[in-house]
User: What shape does this take?
Amino acid sequence: MLFPSPISKFNFKNHNFLIKRDDLISEDFSGNKARKFYYYFEYLKQNPQIKKIVSYGSNQSNAMYSLSVLSKIFNIELEFVSIEIVSVKGIVLESFS
Assistant: This one.
């Protein structure tokens, strides 16, 4: 894990840019979600007695993916609840899965 993510210098058409390289944090745990979950990463390192993470979100959530990677890194069980959105004859229904 590479925290904080490095900043690279980049020149394009004689303009200098600084680019925050969140893609270099980890192969599986990167991007803005990795920065958002950095607090939990540090907390879990300091609290090895934690054995399970429970969360709620969309079944297509990038945050859920990041949580799954975090739980894998620390060998912690992850349980998440998601809402499945179903459309029946143009009516949108929500059901818990």
In short: The chain has a mean pLDDT of 81.
